[in-house]
């Protein structure tokens, strides 16, 4: 009997969330091990010298470090295997369609992370979890972050208006990457959903998928989610 893979992650880490969605969609169950990457624990650095999440340890002993590596590994592994009569939805379609999917994955895990999610999580959550608890949210930083949220949500709204899924006609890891970030932002109640009707419709479909249920059940001690976070009819 094979052991269950272990996903080292943090509940609101967007990259971790994207991988959790992907694994659930392709039918791979993983044991979750929570890690606070800002603590720079030596045992975690031994697992991933980059000090970044997520990390997936397979039962073979192979360690996959980072959302990009994990998603590409399973895309290659499963490209010739059908699930429910179709190829698992990581990077489906033509080479041109897969190029667009990867562009958007880079946008969400790169640009959106730098301009919004990383800083927002530090100001609203991670800063409060530091050992000395001395960090107070910076109002100027939050104003800049919220302006960037409007820009990025406008782009997601455009994509969702023009396409059935964010990258094209099929759901892909681009949708999981976007949902990983947007769900973390939404946990904090930072999205004015009525301003982005197409993005709201796309995200409602994502939230309604069985793979999303564990994310909607996540809770941070002492930090309750926004009222609409787990509401499928938001």
Structure description:
The protein has helices spanning 14-25, 42-47, 67-78, 95-129, 139-162, 173-187, 197-207, 213-217, and strands at residues 6-9, 31-34, 55-57, 63-65. The protein starts with 5 loop residues before the first strand and ends in a 17-residue tail after the last helix. It contains eight helices and four strands. α1 (14-25) links the parallel β1 (6-9) and β2. Strands 2-1-3-4 form a four-stranded mixed sheet. The longest helix has 35 residues, at 95-129. The protein has two domains: 6-78, Glutaredoxin (3-Layer(aba) Sandwich), CATH 3.40.30; 95-217, Up-down Bundle (Glutathione S-transferase Yfyf (Class Pi), Chain A, domain 2), CATH 1.20.1050. With 234 residues, the chain is mainly α. It is 51% helix and 6% strand. The mean pLDDT is 93.
What count of helical segments does DSSP give?
8
User: How much is the radius of gyration in Å?
Assistant: 17 Å
Binned, the helix content reads 40-55%
Mean pLDDT across all residues, rounded?
93
Element pattern in H and E:
EHEHEEHHHHHH
Under CATH at level 1, the class of the largest domain stands as Mainly Alpha
CATH fold descriptor of the largest domain: Glutathione S-transferase Yfyf (Class Pi), Chain A, domain 2
Uncertain segments: none
Q: Specify the overall morphology.
A: globular
CATH architecture of the largest domain: Up-down Bundle
Main-sheet strand order equals: 2-1-3-4
Number of strands: 4
What is the strand content? 5-15%
Distance between the termini: 42 Å
Biggest beta sheet summary: 4 strands, mixed
Structural class: mainly alpha
Total number of domains: 2
Which assembly state applies to the chains in this document? Answer: single chain
